[in-house]
Design a protein that fits this description.
Layout: E1 6-10, E2 14-18, E3 21-25, H1 27-38, E4 41-48, H2 55-60, E5 64-69, E6 75-81, E7 84-91, E8 96-98, E9 109-112, E10 119-121, H3 123-128, E11 132-136, E12 142-144, E13 150-152, E14 165-169, H4 177-187, E15 190-194, E16 200-204, E17 207-211, H5 224-239, H6 242-256, H7 268-282
Parallel strand pairs: 1-4, 1-9, 2-6, 4-5, 8-10, 9-11, 11-14, 14-15
Antiparallel strand pairs: 2-3, 6-7, 12-13, 15-16, 16-17
Helix pairs in contact: 1-5, 5-6, 6-7
Amino acid sequence: MSLVNRIQIIGHVCHDKVQEGYILGGTASYCSIFAKMLCPYVRLLTSYGPDFLFADTFDNLEIVSTIIKSNDTTIFENTYTPTGRVQYLHSKADDLHVGESTLENQTDILFLCPITDEILVEEHVLTNYKGLKAATIQGWLRDFEADGLVVPSLPNFSVFSNLDIIIMSDDDIAGFEKDLLKQLIELVDIVVLTKGAKGAEVFQSGETYFFPSYPSTPVDLTGAGDIFSIAFLYEYAHIHNINQAASFAHAAASLSIEGKGVSAIPVISQIRERQQLYNNRYI
């Protein structure tokens, strides 16, 4: 076992446009907030413009934020149709260049969380990084048409070759599931595919493991996948066991959806209690 005391998260925080105005969005946002519930030091590398409304959220939690100043804040808007979600990108903050000057090499976990293909990584930097290297790849699977419409796109696979863990959802890879999943499994030691209430699959060393979700009554699904991701990485870095990483992640995610918004993010004592229930039932 190894203690997890320092986590670095890289990706755009953003505004999600809703009828009432803007709410805080972005994988990096929820991951940073939840990570601070788990360990004493969290560093966030992000970019936003002077109009960003939620900087105090991170300051109040004492998250160490490195801000690349931009003219714009990343803004998404989701609309829902009978055939599913349609997403638009209205504006985008500056890209994030991950190099020796921006990467803190003394953290236990590095988590890359792109949402607009905004993370540009210098390969040698990841090679030299000593901690657990992971990414959620949603933002590398998106392209944007002239009007901002978000469309699926295959990534440049070279960016994944130095990672230890990739986490993604079945929605992220919809349309090219088999080919993409096969290539990622060949590139990365551990690939985690989440399926919402249907559970999660973990691919490791040629084996596939299935972990069901913990039964709960959802109130708000916002951020559940992000919380699952950080919880999985935290527990895996701590204990190096995918069974316990998955049970900890499912416990955290199931708790997070039983309330609304950031206020529902669970603390570690709650997660451990539910993890024991999960282990008794499934592990």
